[in-house]
DNA sequence: AATTATTTACGACACAGTGTCGATAAAACA
DNA sequence: TGTTTTATCGACACTGTGTCGTAAATAATT
């Protein structure tokens, strides 16, 4: 995949790193919207014209940075997949690929954190809040006993709420080919029973 | 909650509506980033100065529009909750609140669609892709038989992938207080068994 | 119907940020 | 070493912003 360990000019590497670092640190402080190219180059102690030697604009910087970090993730996952090809999918035993996923993300934690939560889509954030409330309430009514849960309560809530939002988006993207009632039913079943009709480990 | 059915000047209502409509239609075409206030007022056939009589800037327009649509959703959900207070949480029967959720979203479909998928966070989109691949693959290996699934295959994949991403974000926001291995384990169990230790309907 | 209040239209303004250029200096490479 | 590549600097035209004051249009009030 990434077959380009070309001898890269140290000045270029330095410049790009300075720009990316400045970028992420500024996002933390002001948010993506408020940032200007001037801000970035100033923070990076570089000339503004230098920015345009490497990126077309602010979006391009974000995009390229994303691709870099992500290609590293993909390579890492692919490698792990190869070695764990005997891939046994057991409950109560984390699949190495997903452990790898979390490890990779932890490695670039600040970048992921900033890039994933640069609250640019207020509607998604607010929707998650609303859905979370109902999921949480439903979970409490349905199963007040923590010992009968497969995971931590807080995680379950977030897990389910995010899943709902994701499916809602999928539904919208697909032109809402299914009725609200059908969608709600599918989600209820998934949220309560999980994906498999009869839990093979019950 | 929304106790302000104040006689609102029809000109104001008209202007706001024109601006919001122009805004959403422009997002569909060019994406949020590329839109200028000029574009919006031009599309709305209004003077640019008029825009600033109602909104501080582009972000404010998005934010206010979001709050409007969302408060309608919340009111609607609250009403449904009241009437269905005998709230029986049965599998294979969609909870009225969640049916209501989908219905409300369908009512403002274009707005939700545009606002939720204005791909402003490339990392989230790419991550969903990557995770989706692995979930899909895992599902195929683990259960090739469609009849033993609780929901449509495609929905399960999207459901689970979104859930994973959501939990990852939650994990990052919380400062990564849990080990990658622990997180992977929790997610594996949720993804396979669902939230409850013993499915009470098995 | 006439008057008053509010909203919108219009043109103009200073300002901030953009993207590009040519020329110069500095650093890397071979 | 000399040659190539990269970063710096100042300047440029340009787009878009946010805010005026004034005049026109529209709604609300009497």
Provide tags for this entry.
homodimer, 202 residues, mainly alpha, 2 domains, 9 helices, DNA-binding
Helix content of chain A: 55-70%
CATH fold-level topology of the largest domain in chain A: Tetracycline Repressor, domain 2
Q: Tally the helices of chain A: what do you get?
A: 9
- Largest contact between chains: A-B, 97 and 97 residues
Tell me the domain tally of chain A. 2
Largest sheet report of chain A: none
Walkthrough of the structure:
The structure is a homodimer of 202-residue chains. By secondary structure, chain A is mostly helical. Chain A folds into two domains: 10-116, Tetracycline Repressor, domain 2; 122-193, no CATH class. Chain A has nine helices and no strands. Chain A has helices at 10-30, 37-43, 48-52, 58-83, 96-107, 109-116, 122-142, 153-173, 180-193. In chain A, helix 1 crosses helix 2, helix 4 (58-83) runs antiparallel to helix 5 and helix 7 (122-142) packs across helix 8. At the A-B interface, helix 4, helix 5, helix 6, helix 7 and helix 8 of A face helix 4, helix 5, helix 6, helix 7 and helix 8 of B. Chain A binds a DNA duplex (30 and 30 nucleotides) through residues 7, 9-12, 15, 36-38, 46-50, 52-53, 56-57.
């Amino acid at each position: 995949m990434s077959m380009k360990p070309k001898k890269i000019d140290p000045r270029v590497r330095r410049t790009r790193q300075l720009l990316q670092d400045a970028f992420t640190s500024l996002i933390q402080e002001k948010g993506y919207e408020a940032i200007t190219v001037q801000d970035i180059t100033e923070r990076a102690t570089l000339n503004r014209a230098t920015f345009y030697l490497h990126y077309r604009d602010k979006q391009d910087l974000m995009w390229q940075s994303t691709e870099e970090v992500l290609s590293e993730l993909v390579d890492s996952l692919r490698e792990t997949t190869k070695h764990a090809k005997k891939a046994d999918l057991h409950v109560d035993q984390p699949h190495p690929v997903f452990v790898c996923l979390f490890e990779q993300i932890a490695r670039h934690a600040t970048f992921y954190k900033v890039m994933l939560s640069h609250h640019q889509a207020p509607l998604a954030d607010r929707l998650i809040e609303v859905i979370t409330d109902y999921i949480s309430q439903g979970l409490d009514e349905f199963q007040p006993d923590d010992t009968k849960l497969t995971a931590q309560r807080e995680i379950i809530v977030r897990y389910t709420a995010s899943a709902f939002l994701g499916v809602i988006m999928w539904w919208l993207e697909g032109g809402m080919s299914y009725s609200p009632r059908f969608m709600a039913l599918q989600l209820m079943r998934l949220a309560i029973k999980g994906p498999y009709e009869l839990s093979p480990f019950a």
